[in-house]
């Protein structure tokens, strides 16, 4: 049976190289390395050579055999006669068996060992002769020396100790290898004579097994120290060596290379949803059961995973940062399994990091590095996150510097630099007022639009205004009818006749002083009537946005016909865009001429139905009651045609018609409900006043209390803190705090407007600007109308101007003359102009003081002309959008001529008192006499007593000499004005 040289060397306890040399010397050539095999003949030959060299008995053969070896030099040991006993005491039963085996015949041993050896070779290394097999560790293991005693006692501790020795040798350094044979020589020497045999399967310890044993840890495997102790144990029983030898260096205990134990992984605290807990109580399967099993399986299989497997997973992660997350999400499944996948991925991630990164704190380093990388990349890109700079912004002012910067896109530092240049040191949270913001925008070339902050008024009241009732909620409501007409034509009398009252006699001078509003029954229908002191009041409500009237009844006395106020009433009714019914009253009067009245009405655009027109004319008499029922039927018929509807099931909105302070009840306001139902206890805001409705009274029977007022119902209410203005709209709100806030806000705004002056509501220039910008809403056909109220000195002037205006034709913009009457501009004109966004054209007439004042308050423009073509030219330019920039007349003041003085060679000097404004030198003077303009002339001289002065202010007297006009008379009104050049607002 072949045996390798190194195995034999071990058996003989000599160095392999020395054995190679011995082989050569013994004539066994061709054995150049320790891995070379010796066949039986060669083995016998070598052994014979060794025996020949030694020439001693068995007990001495080992030591002599070793003595023949040149190196290393070992101290000779004296032969101990009691050696077998020592062996027996050392090995115990094993030693005894070993001794008994010596008695066995060599043939038996050889055959048995050969059989076991063959079996072992077949199992472990079937082709030991192949070069590959020779180089494999398994082949090395085959040559592990064993003792014959091991054949029978294969699991004894001594066998294990013997097996451990070469393993330890493999781990320790060279000097230790040389020590081993010395320590074991005494025990192995008796078996030296045993024939060489192969190893058994039980003797074989694979490399992997060796490693396994080594890495078992302190508790799992015997330490080399223990082995040494085991071997050292019987030493005291041994006979000490005769010759003292130097103590051999002891091999240091092999270092424990087991990995640091990690603390046991803690189970995560997982809170189950309540449903799962409930379900589990009811016996349902626990939701985490499957997940736990799956996770446990994964954990077990994870331990078996090789490093290569882990690295394989790691690689794509190193290359692509997005991959790991993708892998994690891939591993996720629905429900709890998804959680398991996520945890598993996290565990793998930790492992990965440990393998790739450093041992100490590798986790943190890797994790930190991975997380920081995107940030570094982001910062290196230097992408500006600042808002783009804008060319025009809408800002709510005041605002902070930060808000300004964010809105405009200007860097804060840039804005601060600009402000520093203006001498202002501001912080980022400093507040910028409108002026500063405008300055900054101008500096940086940004168009600034100041945005009005959205108030609670906007949010709440606009929400109510925009509320649209569904068709199902809408029900028919009574029409609200207003009587309009000339004074004393019988409005009040007719209404009294309808409701059965006699109010006329109760009013001072028979003139209606208050607005009256009643609701009357006509069969199963109701009609609300509103009687106003004049059409101004009617228009006043419209001017405030409260168009309560559904139907206008124009009262025309059949004996008088159309009068100036009738014309105005027609204009107001037309401007309100409501159906008009004409009541030809006083038909009982002997001088009644209905045909003449109808003709006049036709001339004012009201063509009667009996003449083929669309205006219903009812002949009535408030005295006799003639035609009253017909008038009511006509009203109801008109109402039916127009289908006036409202939703009674919502909070009320309406209009205040009138209010007064009463000594006992406080504020008593007359309201009319437009929509919804007003109830006692409702919180109401009306204009700049608010309150909670304490009580409601019927307007016909003031002592009758009402609990609620449905749509179109006029009522008197108490509960307001102050008297609201006529024409103000009221709203019912849910919260009285909101009502208070809105009222206070409006009050504050009203004061500001009074202090800040007025703005022109509409003017020619403004109209043109709004026309160009498209801010003027047109009618259904898209036609925009320029509303004009024309006042002229004569009927002829009116006709001439209207004729000229008719020539103006523009497809999209048209002139609408709302009213054209003779005489000076009145308050009614201003009211109508204010309500209708109209411009008053005064031709050779002037406004009276009340009208002038009201026009200033309302911002109504009154344009005065004295040449007809100038009127039409301006309007033509306006319509064509080619209004030239021209000199604008600036009114300076007015003076009353008290006396006149005629001086020869100089002319007439007017002694005047300045009524208002200022009279300046070099101005022009417009002379007005009896409300009509005579002409305008340059101011020749202006004196105070005998001194020329630059100006004379209100309340002072002065002497005025006009250039080229001496026909000045006492009572004339002199209006001073100057012509100034103004820049164009629009280019042609
Ligand atoms: N004969 C006759 N007289 C009437 C008729 N209607 C009104 N009157 C009288 O005309 C006068 C004026 O009547 P009012 O009802 O006050 O006229 P009004 O239009 O209301 O007047 P203001 O309230 O000032 O706008 C009263 O004296 C009435 O008696 C009528 O149909 N026939």
Automatic annotation (TrEMBL):
- Point to the regions of Basic and acidic residues compositional bias: 68-77, 99-108, 177-203, 304-324
Q: Name one GO cellular component term.
A: cytosol
Q: Principal place where this protein is found?
A: cytoplasm
Instruction: Check the record and name the CDD domains matching this protein.
Output: IF2_eIF5B, IF2_mtIF2_II, mtIF2_IVc
The protein's GO terms of the molecular function aspect are: GTP binding; GTPase activity; translation initiation factor activity
According to UniProt, the name of this protein is Translation initiation factor IF-2
Compartments, as annotated in UniProt: Cytoplasm
Limits of the Tr-type G domain: 476-645
Detail which positions bind GTP.
485-492, 531-535, 585-588
Gene3D superfamilies noted in UniProt: 1.10.10.2480, P-loop containing nucleotide triphosphate hydrolases, Translation factors, Translation initiation factor IF- 2, domain 3
Instruction: Report residue spans for region: Disordered.
Output: 50-389
Region listing for G-domain, in residue ranges: 479-627
Task: State the family it belongs to.
Answer: Belongs to the TRAFAC class translation factor GTPase superfamily. Classic translation factor GTPase family. IF-2 subfamily.
Q: Which InterPro entries match?
A: EF-G-like_DII, IF2_II, IF2_N, P-loop_NTPase, Small_GTP-bd, T_Tr_GTP-bd_dom, TF_IF2_bacterial-like, TIF_IF2
Bias type Acidic residues, positions: 131-141, 160-176
Which Pfam families does the annotation name? EF-G_D2 (PF22042), GTP_EFTU (PF00009), IF-2 (PF11987), IF2_N (PF04760)
Tell me if Flavoprotein is a UniProt keyword of this record.
Answer: no
Q: Which UniProt keywords apply?
A: Cytoplasm, GTP-binding, Initiation factor, Nucleotide-binding, Protein biosynthesis
The UniProt record lists the keyword Cell membrane:
no
Q: What does this protein do?
A: One of the essential components for the initiation of protein synthesis. Protects formylmethionyl-tRNA from spontaneous hydrolysis and promotes its binding to the 30S ribosomal subunits. Also involved in the hydrolysis of GTP during the formation of the 70S ribosomal complex.
Q: Which PROSITE patterns match?
A: G_TR_2 (PS51722)
